[in-house]
Amino acid sequence: MHLVFIFLSLTFVLCQTLPSRNVYTNHWAVRITGGREEADKLASKYGYINLGQIGSLEDHYHFHHSKVVKRSAFSTRGTHTFIHMDPKVDWVQQQVVKARVKRYTRNDLNFVHFNDPKWSSMWYIHCGDKSSRCRSEMNILAAWQRGYTGKNVVVTILDDGIERNHPDLAQNYDQLASYDVNGNDHDPTPRYDSSNENRHGTRCAGEVAAVANNSHCIVGIAYNARIGGIRMLDGDVTDVVEAKSLGIRPDYIDIYSASWGPDDDGKTVDGPGPLAKQAFEQGIKKGRKGLGSIFVWASGNGGRQGDHCSCDGYTNSIYTISVSSTTENGNKPWYLEVCSSTLATTYSSGEFYDRKIVTTDLRQRCTDGHTGTSVSAPMVAGVIALALEANPLITWRDVQHLLVKTSRPAHLKANDWKTNAAGHRVSHLYGFGLVDADAMVVEAKKWRSVPVQHTCTRISDRRTRYIRPDQYLNASISTTGCTEDADQRVLYLEHVVVRVLIVHPRRGDLQINLISPSGTRSQLLAKRLFDNSNEGFRNWEFMTVHCWGEKAEGQWTLEIFDSPSQQRNPEVLGKLKEWTLILHGTAEHPYHSHSSHHSRSRMLEIPSPGREPKVHEPQQIPEEEEEEEEYNGPCHTECGDQGCDGPDADHCLNCIHFSLGSLKTGRTCVSHCPLGYYEDPEARRCRRCWRGCETCVGRASNECLSCRRGLYLHSDQSSCVDTCPAGCFAEDVQRQCLKCHENCMMCVRDSDRCTACNEGYSLAGMTCVPQCADGTFFNLEEMKCITCHHSCATCTGPGNEECIQCARDFLQQEWKCVPACTEGYYPGEAVGLPQKMCRKCEENCLSCQGPGVTCTRCREGYNLVSRTCIANATCNNADEVFCEMVKSNRLCEKKLFRQFCCRTCLMTG
């Protein structure tokens, strides 16, 4: 026992006294004269990647070798170590890990403290507290500790005004970022009343930029940002009001935050009008001096009404950042709307017992009762302000990319979290997850703008498809991502928009999904119990971000399901008239340009375990080595008749089969050449293929037999390409470009799945068929042109509901061609059509002569008065003297008087 104790003690002493072993990395410092280009050549020659100059040290470069172990107790061996023998290399050193410690005593973020009385109540900033129920930080404190507080960033709140003299806002208030659209002046102060109805904007403003350390109320997320307000909700909100509000000083204001939208009643489908749409487009094109205005939008509070934010055209826009909410515990709030356009999430209120948000309030007060997604939009606006301080040059799309990259699922509870084909975790409740302010500023600081945005549009064939109850209707569009047009080419996706034209007896019964070529399913619309509208969707645009980063090419499927409610006749079928796929994204990978280096073709490395490499140290004089004894042992089986100077394959003086490598890098003998090389039997050498080839017969780019990962073999040209040219489709199993059918100009997945046709042919589904003369259509079953219905001038099928254009003397009425308008309709002009179409008369008219007040006959129970139908039940005559005055002053032409004095008005005809 005593001996064991002594042994352990000695072992402990030795461990304490012996120096710790070095940990070698796969990084080298190299000194090379001749500049960056020469360093790149040498790096490529020996299988390294040049990561660039080391700081400000001229001629010193940082090399990295991806095929060497990241951390090792021994310096590495292999052909790459021959770099130290190259005459152009002055000095080389493999890097060793150095132990370093930070010289401060506190690493707890919670030591940040302000004297604002509500500071400790701002639970959503203090998730690290042991008493807090929110388990995941938005990391606002960490961003502050990096020095980012929103300086020089301008945010404005589109709402009912802000209280500019509030003690927590006055110091950061910016008059140039403010305007009263309702009152047409420059003062956005809210209108005060006993109910304090117009408090919303002031509450949102405090979340963004409430002043810190002023002993009043709270601290804003960007507490040094400039804050303004656009008063536009306290009055009639029109397209002009919205457009004016969205376009105020776009070169001065960086971020517009809006926590409002159409009614969250579960039945409204509404969005920006044409002027507001133009204002959005102008903002992203010209705002911030061309970098693009940033529009942040609350996703909606209609959860209890079963609303779906895809029916809100503001949150559904590619130009806005739609923000969702979660409770302190990471649960779904009762008010939350679900949709595929949501980008990110912040904390907000939940049930009555959950804590709410503390912020500024009207009359220079504070409140701890701010709730809903109204909270989340200004919170994200504040986080974006921190990111803009870190990098003022990021664009409106860069901001969206940053949110996608840095937001995280954390502990947010949802059953639909999924990972898309690009590796992003995403949910219909929370988008890409909880915002992370610290990750945003760190990523923004080093960010390089993403490539230019391209848009690729594909329209389905205009065949009417019936939507049958309790059945799925699947409609597909195949696309190459517009690879044939350089200005529209989309390889990597951002936003995907689906525009639909649907006729349906009860809109709320519909559910719509979109499935990407990678299999990602986006729920574009859920069933809405309160939506009884029979208007359907007239070119409504749904948007999803769930395919972000995925490849655009392939087959997209629109899936529609009709679950009829008891409130409608299930025999009345809905119809999908047309749908359009609009792909927004980039022609190149958005993040490849962010690396400080590009991947290069690397020389194959053959390890040499039997030899110790030499490592040069700066100004180190090498010791004289003793002359080695001549090797007399057995040679490797691949060595030739000239023998060897060691036992391994790289010790051979010549080879039986092939040699791989060069004199400088070291040669080794192999029985056959590896991938990326071809065999030269005359020279008995393995020679490198063109960089895209995996196997080849020569060095040229048109001598490939198979391709490296991610490329396709164009068989006709024996070359490797990243996308197949027009006239070919990408066959993914063998990774080849195969020819389309002879009638196809373009096709996908198969030779006869055409997406565009050669001259003289037209597309029928995904088949190119001969173009038929007007009045006929091509029948795929009989493979010939067949006459259209007699009412059609052109058509897609035999029925009168499949007309594209009506025949002469026929009119279009509700998707079919008729010889004359039926009761309740009149023939009217149609913009863009040569023939007239039947338009509906005014309500309660049996027949009319045109639009407006032109009735000639009324429905039962109505009287014709001044060419308008008035209900009999409203005929309640007023005082005789009053009615005579109405009659003598021709006031019967006014609807109000017609109903009040209808008998008098009837006497006038």
TrEMBL record:
Biased composition (Basic residues): 592-601
Keyword check for Flavoprotein: no
Active-site residues, as the UniProt record annotates them: 159 (charge relay system), 200 (charge relay system), 374 (charge relay system)
CDD domains in the cross-refs: FU (cd00064), Peptidases_S8_Protein_convertases_Kexins_Furin-like (cd04059)
Residue ranges of every copy of the P/Homo B domain listed in the record: 449-589
One function term, GO molecular function aspect: serine-type endopeptidase activity
Protein's UniProt keywords contain Glycoprotein: yes
Stretches assigned to the PLAC domain: 871-909
Gene Ontology terms: biological process: peptide hormone processing
GO cellular component: cell surface; extracellular space; membrane
Signal peptide interval: 1-15
Chain positions covered by the region annotation Disordered: 178-200, 590-629
Compositionally biased region (Basic and acidic residues): 183-200
UniProt entry keywords in alphabetical sequence: Cleavage on pair of basic residues, Glycoprotein, Hydrolase, Protease, Repeat, Serine protease, Signal, Zymogen
Family to which this protein belongs: Belongs to the peptidase S8 family.
Protein name: Proprotein convertase subtilisin/kexin type 6
